[in-house]
UniProtKB/TrEMBL annotation:
Keywords: Cell membrane, Membrane, Transmembrane, Transmembrane helix. It is a multi-pass membrane protein. SUPFAM superfamilies: Oxidoreductase molybdopterin-binding domain, Transmembrane di-heme cytochromes. Residues 336-480 form the Oxidoreductase molybdopterin-binding domain. This is Oxidoreductase. InterPro entries: Cyt_b561_bac/Ni-Hgenase, Di-haem_cyt_TM, OxRdtase_Mopterin-bd_dom, OxRdtase_Mopterin-bd_sf. The chain crosses the membrane at residues 96-116, 156-181, 201-224, 244-268. It comes from the Bacteria. Its main location: membrane. It is found in: Cell membrane. Residues 5-234 form the Cytochrome b561 bacterial/Ni-hydrogenase domain. It comes from Ornithinimicrobium pekingense.
Length: 507
C-alpha cells in the first residue's frame, strides 16, 4: 500500500486539531457555568456524581441560584473565560458546525480514495496483534517499524473507535441537550437518561477525546518520531536526519501557532464581547435555521413524559423581586396576590388590558409535562398549567398589523449585566411561530399547585422549545411588538443583553 499521506488528509488533520482545541476550551467554559454533573433528572443538591467546586449547596429550593454557582476560568484555559457562558456556547456551536463538516468530508474522502483500509480493520487478526502492541508499550518498548503500514493494529483500533464511535457519540449526546430536539423527540432524550444523562455522557466523551489526544501526540514524538514528523508534514518520502529536523521545526511551530490562535480567540472575544456575540451567533444561527427551527413540539401527541418523571427538586436562576425592584409585586405577594395584574398590550397601537389572576384562570386552560433546561446545564421536569399565549393575546382581538414578535416583561430585574451597568427589567422576545406552539403558555400552576414564588409566581412564561432564559418569571406584561431591536439593547431579551446569549434559544 502507498504509505504517502495526501495533502487533503494532512490539511484536515490540522483543521481537526484547531477545531478540537476550540471545542474543548469552549466546553470548559460551559462546564464552569455549572461545575456539577448529575445522573438524576432533577439535579438535587448533594446528588452530583462529579463536581469541580468546593461549594456546598443548600437543600432548600429558591435560596441559591445557578448563577451563584458559576466559576471564573482564566482565558488561557477556556474560550473565552471569565464567566462568559453565552460566548462560550456560541464558540462551541461554531466549532461543532465546522468540526462536523470537516469530519463528513474526511470520512467521505477516506472511502472515496480507499484510504479507509488503513484505519478500519478488515481481519480479526487485528485484535491479537493489537494486544501484542499494547504489551510492548506497557513493557516500555517500541514496536518495530515494520509493524506500521502506516499504522499498527493498536492504532487502527484506536482510530476506528475515535472516528466511527466516539465522534458520532459526541454528536448524538450533544443534540440530546437541545430543547428543540427534546420537545419534538422526547423519547430520544430519555434514551440517553434525560438531559442530565446526555450531559454526563457528553462530558465522559470529552474526557476520552482529551485522553486520546494526549496519548496520540505523545506517541508521535516517542515512537519512530522521524518517520512520523516527515509523514505528517511532507506526506511521506525519504526519511533523513535533515528532513526530519526540518519537519519537526515546522510541526512544533505549527502547534505553537495553533495554541496562540486559541488564546487569541479568548482575548479577542473579551476585548469586545458584543462584537464577538454578533460574529459567533451569526454563524450558529445558520445551523439553527437549517436543523432546528423546523422542529415544533409534539404537544398533545407527546407520550414520553408522565407524572412519574416529575422532579423532586427544581433549581432557579434569579431571585424574586425585592421592594426596591417592584414594590407593587412585593405588596401583592404579601396580600395573597390581591390587586396584582398582568398587562396584555398592543405596543404598536397603544392598546392594553389588565388581567387579574382570576381573569387568567377564566381563559382556556392548557396543561402538559415538560423538562425545563437552563443554558447553564441544570434541568427539572414539571407539569405546567396555564393559558396558551395565543389565547392570552386573543383578549385584545386579532393580531395587529405589523406585529412580528411577542415580548414578555418581568416585575423583576436582571441578576447582573455583563458590563456592570444598572440592571434592566427582565424581558424576553419570541417570534410568532414559537408563540403559536402548543407548549408556549403563561403558567400559573406547577404540579397542580400555584407556581412557587421562587419559580416565577404568580405567573410565568413557558416556551418549551427554548432554553429557560426565554421563560420570563414574575410576568408583569406581555405585548405585541414590531421589532425587538427597539427594546433593551436590541438583541431580543435580557439574557441576550446581559449574558450575550442567542435570540434563538432552541439549543
Amino acid at each position: 500500500m502507498d504509505v504517502d499521506f495526501p495533502l487533503w488528509l494532512r490539511a484536515q488533520h490540522l483543521l481537526n486539531f484547531v477545531l478540537m482545541g476550540m471545542l474543548i476550551r469552549s466546553g470548559v467554559e460551559m462546564l464552569s457555568s455549572l461545575p456539577r454533573l448529575w445522573w438524576r433528572k432533577d439535579c438535587a443538591p448533594g446528588t452530583e456524581w462529579l463536581r469541580f467546586t468546593r461549594r456546598e449547596l443548600p437543600k432548600e429550593e429558591g435560596v441559591y441560584t445557578s448563577l451563584m454557582d458559576e466559576k471564573s476560568v482564566h482565558p488561557l484555559l477556556s474560550l473565552p473565560g471569565r464567566e462568559n457562558i453565552g460566548l462560550g456556547r456560541h464558540w462551541h456551536g461554531l466549532s461543532v458546525m465546522f468540526w462536523v463538516l470537516n469530519g463528513v468530508v474526511y470520512v467521505g474522502l477516506l472511502f472515496a480514495t480507499g484510504l479507509w483500509r488503513r484505519i478500519v480493520p478488515t481481519s480479526w487478526d487485528v485484535f491479537p496483534e493489537a494486544w501484542d502492541s499494547l504489551t510492548t508499550y506497557l513493557s516500555l518498548d517500541v514496536p518495530d517499524l515494520s509493524h506500521f503500514s502506516p499504522y499498527d493494529s493498536l492504532q487502527m483500533l484506536g482510530y476506528t473507535f475515535v472516528i466511527f464511535v466516539l465522534a458520532p457519540f459526541q454528536m448524538l449526546t450533544g443534540i440530546a441537550m437541545s430543547p428543540a430536539i427534546r420537545s419534538r423527540f422526547p423519547w430520544y432524550v430519555k434514551m440517553w437518561g434525560g438531559h442530565q444523562g446526555a450531559r454526563s455522557l457528553h462530558f465522559i466523551g470529552l474526557v476520552l477525546f482529551s485522553g486520546f489526544i494526549v496519548m496520540h501526540v505523545s506517541l508521535v514524538f516517542l515512537v519512530h518520531r522521524e518517520h512520523n514528523v516527515v509523514n505528517m508534514v511532507f506526506g511521506g518520502g525519504e526519511v533523513t536526519t535533515a528532513r526530519a529536523a526540518q519537519a519537526l521545526v515546522i510541526m512544533v511551530s505549527t502547534v505553537v501557532a495553533v495554541v496562540a490562535f486559541w488564546i487569541f480567540l479568548s482575548y479577542w472575544s473579551l476585548a469586545d464581547r458584543v462584537r464577538a456575540q454578533r460574529f459567533t451567533a451569526g454563524f450558529t444561527e445558520v445551523g439553527r435555521r437549517v436543523f432546528l427551527n423546523r422542529l415544533r413540539p409534539l404537544g398533545a401527541r407527546k407520550r414520553a413524559y408522565t407524572d412519574e418523571d416529575i422532579s423532586e427538586f427544581h433549581w432557579t436562576n434569579g431571585l424574586p423581586p425585592t421592594q426596591e425592584e417592584s414594590a407593587v409585586w412585593v405588596q401583592a405577594r404579601d396580600n395573597d396576590w390581591e390587586g396584582l395584574t398582568v398587562t396584555v398590550r398592543d405596543d404598536i397601537n397603544d392598546v392594553e388590558r389588565q388581567l387579574t389572576l382570576h381573569d387568567l384562570r377564566a381563559l382556556p386552560q392548557h396543561s402538559y409535562i415538560a423538562t425545563h433546561t437552563c443554558m447553564q446545564g441544570w434541568s427539572a421536569t414539571s407539569r405546567w398549567t396555564g393559558v396558551r399565549l395565543t389565547d392570552l393575546m386573543g383578549v385584545l382581538g386579532p393580531r395587529p398589523e405589523g406585529a412580528r414578535y411577542l415580548m414578555a416583561e418581568s416585575y423583576g430585574l436582571a441578576q447582573k449585566m455583563y458590563d456592570n451597568r444598572p440592571r434592566e427589567p427582565f424581558y424576553a422576545c419570541i417570534d410568532l411561530e414559537t408563540m403559536a406552539e402548543e407548549e408556549s403558555i403563561l403558567a400559573y400552576e406547577r404540579n397542580g399547585h400555584p407556581v412557587d414564588v421562587h419559580l416565577g409566581g404568580p405567573a410565568r412564561v413557558r416556551v418549551e422549545s427554548n432554553h429557560g432564559y426565554k421563560h420570563v418569571k414574575w410576568v408583569a406584561r406581555v405585548m405585541w411588538i414590531h421589532d425587538y431591536a427597539d427594546y433593551g439593547d436590541g438583541r431580543g431579551g435580557t439574557r441576550e443583553d446581559s449574558a450575550l446569549q442567542a435570540f434563538n434559544g432552541r439549543i
